Amino acid sequence: LAPWVPVVGLEIHAQISSNSKLFSGSQVQFAAPPNSLVSFFDASLPGTLPVLNRRCVEAAVMTGLALNCSINKKSLFDRKHYFYADLPAGYQITQQRVPIAVNGSLSYSLCIDNKMSQMVTKTVRIKQIQLEQDSGKSLHDDTRSQTLVDLNRAGVGLMEVVMEPDMCCGEEAAAAVRELQLILQTLGSSQAVMAEGQLRVDANVSVHHPGEPYGVRTEVKNINSIRFLAKAVDYEIQRQIEELENGGTILNETRAFDSKLGCTVPMRDKEGKQDYRFMPEPNLPPLILYDAKSLPANMNHQQVINIDWIHERLPDLPSVKREKLVEQYGILPEHSFTLLNEDGLAEFFESVVKHTQMKPKKVIGWVLNDLLSYLKQHSLTVKESPVSSFLLADLLNLLEKKEISSTAAKQVLAELWKGEGKTPLEIVKEQKLELLQDQKELEQICQAVIDGQENE
Amino acid sequence: AALKDGLRSQVSAALKEGRVTPTELCQRCLALIKSTKFLNAYITVAEETALKQAEESEERYKRGQPLGILDGIPISVKDNFNTAGIETTCASNMLKGYISPYNATVVQKLLDQGAVLLGKTNLDEFAMGSGSTDGVFGPVRNPWSYSKQYKEKSVLKSHSEDEESDWVITGGSSGGSAAAVSSFTCFAALGSDTGGSTRNPAAHCGVVGLKPTYGLISRHGLIPLVNSMDVPGILTRCVDDAAVLLGSLAGHDPKDSTTVQDDFKPFELPNLTDVSKLSIGIPKEYHAPGLSSEILALWSKAADLFKNAGAKVIEVSLPHTRYSIVCYHVLCTAEVASNMARFDGLEYGHRSDMKDSTESMYAATRREGFNDVVRGRILSGNYFLLKQNYEKYFVKAQKVRRLIANDFVKVFRSGVDILLTPTTLSDAAPYTEFIQEDNRTRSAQDDILTQAANMAGLPAINVPTALSERGLPVGLQFIGRSFQEKQLLSVAKWFEKQVQFPVIQLEEVKRHDNGVFQHQKSASFS
C-alpha cells in the first residue's frame, strides 16, 4: 500500500479586541442582551456609511508583525455578497484583493511521541491576514419555524489568518493554533478564547500519494476547541484515506465536525457554489499605512498609523519569553513551554522564584509536577489556585533550609490545598513534621529503635 | 418680500428687518404647495414640524439672534435623504412608511442653521430615471406646463387635445425638487446627482442645478444609487442662492470617509464684470446625436457671448465621451445590485407575507418592493459582477472611467478654465411622449451630456438660459475643475446676469404672493 501524505491548511478568524466595531461605533461585548449593541450602520439602515476603526487596524498590524508578515502599506476593502439572515447589508466588507498583511510565518513546538523531553520546532507559512466584518448570529427555532436574528456581533472586527497547507496532522494543527492563540493574547489584539467565539478555526484537509498532485480538499467547520480541532483533522484524514482506498472519491465540500460522534458530516447543501460577486467597497478609500521613512513631515499623527512605531512597541512574543525563561532560570525548553502554555503559570513561577532561596531549577519541578497536576486534577486555572505563589515560596524555603524533608513538604502541600488559610509553618508545627537537626537527639531515637528491636 | 426673491439679497434682509416673518413665509409656501398639488412634487409635506421650526426661527429673529442666512428659510428635500421622524420612501414600495431614526448630514446642517423643512420631494424610484415618472407615487409635472409662457405657445394644437394630457415632464430624477423650486413652494431644495439627476430637471424646470465636486458634500444619510458617483445636489432660483447653500453644506464629515479632509471656506460670490481672462472650452463631442437645433443655436450664442466679452473660447475634445453611457451602465448597475442587497424585509421596510423560508421571503419582498427599473438594474449589475464577467465588464468599465476622467484633466491642464455645454438634448417632452420609451432607453439618451461629470467627479451647474419655441426652459451647463466651485459659480453668475432668464408666470403663484413683485427684466436670451 502506497503511503498517504495528509495536507492540512487552516483559516482562522480571530475577533479583534476593541471597544467598538470595525466600521461603526457600537460596542463590542460578549453575551449582551440580543440586539442591544447595534448601530444604524450595523443594521444596514439605508444611507449609513462605514468608518474605519483605527484600533482594529493597529491590531492587525501588530499581529502581522508578530507573524513576520510584510505589512501592505496600501490595502483595499471589498464587498463579498451573499444573502443570509445574519448579514443585514447582503454583503460583508472584507479584504479580498489586497489584504493588510502577507507572507508571514509561525513557528510552533511539538513533542515527539508525547515525550516532553523531545520537542521539535515546526513552521507554517502565513499566507495573509485580512480585516473583515463578523456576521450576526442566527438561531434556528425549528419548532416554531422561525429564525431568530441577533445582530450584536454583526460588524465586529475580525482578523482572518490564513495558514498554508504546511501541516500534516491534527497535532500540528492544534499546536499551531495554540501558538497563534498565545501570540494574540500576548499582543492583546484578540482575547482568542475559542469558547466565546473569539477564535474560530476552519480546517482544509486533503490527502495524496507522495510525488502526486494534491488531492481534492474538504473544508471542516464547527470546531469548538483546540482538542476538537486535532480530532476533527485526524478523523477527516482517516476518512479520506479509507474512502480513496475503497475506490471512492473525495468531494470538494464543506463538512461539519460533530463533537459528540467524533466525526465529520457533510453540511447542508448550500445550493451549489456561491459566486460572491466581489466588488471594491466604494465608501472606503484605500487604507494607507506609513513607516518612519514614508511618513510625511506635516502629517497629523492622529490620522496615520506608523508601522515602525508599532513594531518598536511590540511586547515579547511567547517564543522570546520562553527563551528568556530558559536563559534566566536555567530551566529546560520543555519546562518553559509548559509554563507559557498555562495562563498565568509563568508569572506564578517567577513569583515563587522571587520569594524563595530555592534554585529555579528545583522550583520548576514543584510548579510543574505538584502544583500543575493538582490544578489539572481539579480543573482549576492558575488564578483559581488555593495555593498562592507566596505560600508555595514559604514552603519551599522551609525545605531549602532543611527544616523539613521533601516528603514532609509534599504532606504540607496536600494540606495547603484545602485552602484553610494556614501557613506552611503552622502546618509543619501542627503535624510535627520538623526535621530534627540535633545529632544527640537523633542518636537517642535511633538507639531507642534498636533497643526496641532487640527486645523482640 | 416676494416668494421669488433671492435669499442673500432680499429674503434674508427682509427677515432680519421684520418685513416678513418666518411663519408667514412658511405659511405661504405651505399654501402654495396645497394649491399646486397637481404637480405631485411632494411626497410628504411636514406641515406641523415646519410651522414649529418657523416659530422657533421667529423667536430667534425677535431676539436679534438668527443663526444665519438660512434661518427661517423654507427648504425641501428629495425623498432619498434620511429625515428623522419624517417618512423617507425613495418613491418605492420598499420604503413606504419608513421613518428613519436619523438625519442625513446635509439635512442636519440645514436644520442646525434654522432652515424650515417643508417636506420630501418626489423622484424616480430610488433615483433611477431621467423623468421623475417612475416612482410609486406617480410622475411629477413640470410647473412650466401650466405657465402662461407654455400655454401661449401651445394654443394652436391643444384645442383637440385634453389639456390634462398636455403636461410636460420635469426631467429627473430630482424632478420633485426642481418643480418645488420652480413653482416657488420653497427657496431651495436638495436633490441628488449621479448621472445628471439634479442638472437635468433643473434645465427642464428653469432653475439653477448645482452638482458639487465629489467628496465636497457629505453623503451620509443619502440613500445611495452609485456610491462612487452620487453627490447631494442643490436646486435654487439663482446662482447666488446656490452659493449660499453650498457654503452651508460643504466640508469634511467624519461619518463619510469619501469627503475630503481639507477645510472648506464658504465664499461670497464676486460680481464678475471682466471675463477676458477666462478660457472657455467647447467640447465638440457634446454636439451629441439628437441635440435639438434650438439648443445647438443657444449653445453657440452663449459661446459668442463669452467671446464678445473678451474671453478666450476654444473648441476642445473629450474623446472618450461616447463611451461614458455604456461605462456608466456597467458601473451603475453593479453598484445598484450591491446597494440594494440590504433590502430584504428583515430589519426595516416592506416585508412580504411569504413565510415558507427565509429565501422565499427575501425573493417575494424584493419582487413586491422594487419596480421593474430597479429589478432590471439589479439583475444587470449581478451579471456584470459574476466572477466570469468581472474582468470583462466591471474592471474594463473602471479603466474606461479613468480614461474619461483623464480627458477632463488634459483639457483643464491645457489652460481651459470652464467647459460650456448643453445640459439636455431638447426641452421637456410631454409625458405621453416620454413614456413611449422605457426607462433604460430614456436614461441612456438623456444622461449623455451630464453623465461624464459624475464619472470624473467634477463640479457642474445648469444655468437656465432661455425659453424654447414651445415656451419651455432650456439650460446650459458649465463644468469646472475639481473643488473650484468658486470659479464655476462666478462664471455661472456672470452668465445668468447676461441672459436674464424670464420668471415663470404661474397663476397659483400670483395668487399667493402678495408681496411686491420683483419684476426681473425679461431681456431674455433668445
Automatic annotation (TrEMBL), chain A:
Q: Which Pfam families match?
A: GatB_N (PF02934), GatB_Yqey (PF02637)
Q: Which GO terms describe its molecular function?
A: ATP binding; glutaminyl-tRNA synthase (glutamine-hydrolyzing) activity; transferase activity
> Which keywords does UniProt give here?
ATP-binding, Ligase, Nucleotide-binding, Protein biosynthesis, Transferase
Name the InterPro entries for this protein: Asn/Gln-tRNA_amidoTrfase_suB/E, Asn/Gln-tRNA_Trfase_suB/E_cat, Asn/Gln_amidotransferase, Asn/Gln_tRNA_amidoTrase-B-like, GatB, Gln_synth/guanido_kin_cat_dom
Domain Asn/Gln amidotransferase, by residue range, is: 347-456
| Catalysis performed (reactions) | L-glutamyl-tRNA(Gln) + L-glutamine + ATP + H2O = L-glutaminyl-tRNA(Gln) + L-glutamate + ADP + phosphate + H(+)
CC annotations in GO: glutamyl-tRNA(Gln) amidotransferase complex; mitochondrion
Q: Name one GO biological process term.
A: glutaminyl-tRNAGln biosynthesis via transamidation
HAMAP family membership: GatB
Q: Which family does it belong to?
A: Belongs to the GatB/GatE family. GatB subfamily.
Q: Which PANTHER family match?
A: GLUTAMYL-TRNA GLN AMIDOTRANSFERASE SUBUNIT B MITOCHONDRIAL AND PROKARYOTIC PET112-RELATED, GLUTAMYL-TRNA(GLN) AMIDOTRANSFERASE SUBUNIT B, MITOCHONDRIAL
| Name assigned to this protein | GATB amidotransferase
UniProtKB/TrEMBL annotation, chain B:
A GO cellular component term found in this entry reads: mitochondrion
Where the record annotates domain Amidase, the positions are 28-147, 169-489
InterPro entries cross-referenced by the UniProt entry:
Amidase (IPR000120), Amidase_dom (IPR023631), AS_sf (IPR036928), GatA (IPR004412)
Keyword annotations of the record? ATP-binding, Ligase, Mitochondrion, Nucleotide-binding, Protein biosynthesis, Transferase
- BP terms from Gene Ontology: glutaminyl-tRNAGln biosynthesis via transamidation; mitochondrial translation
Q: Which GO terms describe its molecular function?
A: ATP binding; glutaminyl-tRNA synthase (glutamine-hydrolyzing) activity; transferase activity
Give one Pfam hit by family name: Amidase
Specify the domain of life of the species encoding this protein. Eukaryota
What is the recorded name of this protein?
GATA amidotransferase
Protein species of origin? Certhia brachydactyla
